[in-house]
Design goal:
about 350 residues; alpha/beta; six-stranded parallel sheet; about 45% helix
Length: about 350
């Protein structure tokens, strides 16, 4: 049971991309998303609070109907919360009936963070609920080691399964001395982090006027002095745009929330043969090998200086991009990560209920 439809990155990467592989391993899988596609689109837009409330109410009815229908199942696999509001009453009732609970998360959901678009969602969001679910769950599957350790410290039983990347879905990369494209891929909720490095990006844009700047999925975004070309996200837009990117940006704020990020943006760049230039914090330190598979920006490195070096060195970009792609193939194969989750869930279901 996911929070988002396939358009939502966390659900797409944590659940949907594994479905065919689960079936190859002998397990039939069906997915029910709390949000359908219209609600997801509405959730990342501003305003329309009454409509959001009404559509969320209908989504709640749909979800509870599915839970009731499957109330005698052996296990409930939750990608994020069962319901995005209220205490985990349903989860507790199902646990008492003997159902095993598996909780999957790839963000620091136990830290309260306001929604940029939905005041209602912000009001109902409860970090304590996430902690309660983690303690209640028979197993928590975390997107990185820090999230795993946090879950264990809260009283849960957690393992790490990092996100996989299907490198076969990206177009073959060609290299050359032509126009350099610096890109960013994400959602409207995270595009704001680019403003953390706006001065340095403006410095690069002014000194390198031939560089192309492309943003995918950032919504209504503007930055004075940087000529961002904004594009709406879709599967096809993502694939075509990543084929254009030479360098991919991932700045993060210096706060605890960033420690829960599981490197999805940077790993996607790497899988598409794009050089990641990322903040040196949290899981990025495990994901990117500085100078070999990408660039880590810390207090000793400047975004402007490192971007300029990459822009001026096509050979260096090519070596890094090729190394990054191979690293993803070696460490994050989709069949390997799917097998880890499948085996963990199968072992739990075959064990005696707790």
């Amino acid at each position: 049971m996911t929070k988002y439809p396939e358009q939502g990155a966390s659900s797409r990467y944590r659940v949907y991309q594994y479905l065919d592989h689960y079936r190859e391993l002998g397990t039939d899988v069906a997915v029910q998303s709390f949000m359908d596609a219209p609600l997801y689109r509405l959730s990342i837009s501003r305003g329309s609070q009454a409509k959001k409330f009404w559509m969320a109410a209908k989504a709640t009815v749909r979800r509870l109907a599915v839970v009731w229908k499957n109330r005698d199942a052996d296990a409930l696999y939750l990608q994020r919360e069962l319901l995005p509001f209220g205490p985990p009453v349903i989860e507790r009732l199902l646990k008492r009936r003997g159902m095993r609970l598996i909780f999957d998360y790839d963000d620091a959901l136990f830290i309260k963070k306001a929604s940029r678009y939905n005041r209602i969602a912000s009001f109902f969001r409860s970090p304590q609920k996430i902690a309660d679910i983690i303690r209640m769950a028979n197993l928590t599957i975390a997107g990185n080691d820090w999230l795993r350790d946090q879950a264990n410290s809260l009283g849960g039983r957690a393992i790490t399964v990092e996100v996989a990347e299907d490198t076969n879905r990206y177009l073959s990369k060609t290299y050359g001395d032509g126009q350099v494209t610096i890109g960013w891929l994400g959602s409207p909720s995270t595009s704001k982090y680019l403003h953390l490095i706006s001065d340095q990006l403006r410095e690069v844009a002014e000194a390198q006027p031939l560089v192309k700047w492309v943003m995918v999925g950032g919504g209504d975004f503007e930055m004075d002095g940087v000529p961002w070309e904004t594009r709406d996200w879709s599967f096809e837009t993502e694939k075509k745009s990543l084929h254009e990117f030479d360098i991919g940006l991932m700045p993060l704020p210096n706060e605890q929330w960033s420690l829960g990020k599981s490197g999805g943006k940077a790993r996607t760049y790497m899988a598409a043969s794009v050089v990641p230039v990322v903040s040196a914090m949290g899981y990025n330190l495990q994901l990117v090998d500085h100078g070999r598979t990408g660039i880590l920006i810390d207090n000793e490195h400047s975004w402007a200086d490192e971007l300029t070096k990459l822009i001026q060195s096509p050979d260096k970009r090519q070596r890094m991009a090729e190394a990054a792609l191979q690293d993803v193939k070696n460490r994050f194969s989709i069949d390997g990560q799917a097998a880890k989750i499948h085996d963990a869930v199968k072992a739990l279901v075959n064990d005696a209920p707790s």
